[in-house]
Amino acid sequence: MNNDFIFPDYIFESSWEVCNKVGGIYTVLSTRAKTLQERIKDRIIFIGPNCWNEESCPYFIEDHTMFNTWKKKAATDGLKVKVGRWNIPGTPIAILVDFSSFYEKKNEIYASLWEDYKVDSLHAYGDYDEASMFSYAAGLVVESFYNEYLNKTQKVIYHGNEWMTGLGVLYINKVLPEIGTVFTTHATSIGRSIAGNNKPLYDYLFAYNGDQMADELNMQSKHSIEKQTAKYVDCFTTVSEITANECKELLDKPVDFVLPNGFDNSFVPKGATFSKKRKAARKRVLDVANALLGTDLGDDTLIVSTSGRYEFRNKGVDVYIEAMNRLLRDKELSKTVLALIEVPGWVGEPRKDLVNRLNSGKKFDTPLEVPEITHWLHNMSHDNVLGMLKYLDMHNRADDKVKLIFLPCYLTGNDGVFNITYYDLVLGNDLCIYPSYYEPWGYTPLEAVAFKVPCITTDLAGFGLWANSGKGEYSEIEDGVKVIHRTDYNYSEVADAIKDTVAKFSNMTEEEVKKCRTNAEKLSKKALWSNFIKYYEQAYDFALRKAEARKTNVEN
User: Fold this and answer.
1) What are 424-439's pLDDT values in tens digits?
2) Does residue 123 have a pLDDT over 90?
3) What is the 3-state secondary structure (H, E, C) of 516-548?
4) What is the pLDDT of residue 414?
5) How many whole angstroms separate alpha carbon 126 and alpha carbon 164?
6) Suppose 26 and one of 17, 128, 178, 509 were both cysteines; which one would form an S-S bond, judging by CB atoms 3.0 to 4.6 Å apart?
7) Which of 214, 92, 108 is nearest to 167 (CA)?
8) What would the pLDDT profile of 440-482 be if each residue is shown by its tens digit?
9) Residue 462's closest CA among 128, 137, 237, 225?
10) What does the longest C-alpha to C-alpha distance in the chain come to?
């Protein structure tokens, strides 16, 4: 902690993923909360969308006694809120807001946004309206709460995450100039879109015009709110150097600070519990694989996996499959490899034939039909993973040294086949592979190393760059993380580098593997929030000084 920095008395932080598990931002906020809660107990308040209406939200514990006076007043002002605690380590206060009533004022809201900040909402479609109405409601919640309980003597921060919170950040900027505003983009909407549309992002970054690309890719409104929020906020931040470069080029605004994503390892099992869970995970994976494939894979099988959102190119799922295909013919490979793809697809139902085999407790020597997948999909014939496996003629034949299985479900512990959670499954791996093409930070490799699983990633992921910066050169698998150089055009070299690393790992001695695992865990400890919170201290200080200067100007 730097004593020269001004630290806020209150922090309001909003995100579409508060008490709403969608992607990596949930992990960023929910793991950082404990560190901030320890620092300013119950004065860090998270604001999220009430997506659950009257149903109970599994991530939220409502408290009917909290802030009652304000809740009644807010209700008379047309603000429907639920107050309680986010069900995560540190249990911080969370306010969930119902934003449905603001749709009827949408045009007025967008008109004033254009007048005040030149945000173009004319081309809004899809989730733009939903995010904007939530964001506006979140801004009103902060304004209402501030007027009820706080005043200008307190140092207050309003922190919005992603373009979805931009409207609220700008609203607070306008109505409560004494609040310091922070805006974090975890990925630029236009950068993600360029990458996802199979366009080369990196070699041409300097030549792309963000506004022009937004027109071409029909992203004008999301790009506009993101760009204008970045421009007018007190402190504009992102999560890695690679995305900072993207912001400068595509949003025409350099970031004020890079805030790398930390980790809270309190839920990583220790000692004997860890060993027991690892053993159970491996057994479950091998049981499912053997039932599906009609094989008898033993514990000496090398279990590898990739996981994340279903962004086939951005997350490098395509190059992972390519690498496994090449590994099939690699003479250096000395073990059988079971390669998993843990990416939620348009899942239909668990396979009854597979569940029946698992429940029978018997061994089978013939595979089930379509032995590449554990759950049926709604779009079997149009799925990217299955399509690529078919194209490469990868069908898990009996004598294949590499078997590849697609787990297209959310691993929440009740998927009907594995019935264990993602974190309980990941620690059963020998290696995790995340060859991302577009990855602002990269939580999956950080989670893997926290569970002592060495991993492979690329230098197009913020985490990969961070791992390299710690070593001062490219990190190798012996260091716990193998970072592969990736560009717009070296797909084939990346596939070979993955293949070679897995083959090399299969030949390591028990002692060498143990060292890899120890180094992986050591690296994860450097990324704990206790080490990374200092970057947030800088950002808060920067925003509060700007707010203070505004206040002084008004008073003078």
Assistant:
1) 999 999 999 999 999 9
2) no
3) HHHHHHHHHHHCEHHHHHHHHHHHHHHHHHHHH
4) 93
5) 12
6) 17
7) 108
8) 999 999 999 999 999 999 999 999 999 999 999 999 999 999 9
9) 237
10) 84
- Judged against a pLDDT cut of 90, whether residue 369 lies above it is answered with yes
Q: How far apart are CA 24 and CA 166, in angstroms?
A: 19
Question: What is the average pLDDT across 349-355?
Answer: 97
For tokens 């003597």, what's the residue? 153
pLDDT above 80: residue 553: no
pLDDT confidence of residue 98: 95
Q: Which two tokens stand for residue 125?
A: 């479609």
Give me the helix-helix angle, 491-506 and 317-327, nearest 10°: 50
Instruction: Using alpha carbons, select from 10, 18, 182, 145 the residue that is nearest to residue 94.
Output: 18
Are 527 and 446 spatial neighbours (Cβ–Cβ below 8 Å)? yes
Is the pTM value of this prediction over 0.90?
A: yes
Model pLDDT for residues 17-35, shown as the tens digit of each residue: 999 988 789 989 999 999 9
Q: Which residues contact 285 (CB under 8 A, 6 or more apart)?
A: 303, 338, 340, 418, 425, 428
Measured CA distances, 507 to 118, 303, 512 (Å): 60, 14, 10
The helix, strand and coil proportions of the chain, stated in percent and rounded to the nearest 5, come to 45, 15, 35
Whether the CB-CB separation of 16 and 165 falls below 8 Å is answered with yes
What are the C-alpha distances in Å from 493 to residues 445, 477, 500, 504, 509? 20, 17, 10, 16, 26
- Candidates 108, 91, 114, 113; CA nearest to 45 is 91
Q: Which two tokens stand for residue 291?
A: 């039932």
- Of 271, 340, 333, 336, the C-alpha closest to 299 is 336
Q: Give Rg (Cα) of the chain.
A: 24
Q: Rounded to an integer, what distance in angstroms lies between the CA atom of residue 486 and that of residue 88?
A: 36
Tokens found for residue 530: 């206790």
Quote the CA–CA distance of 377 and 346 in Å, as a whole number: 6
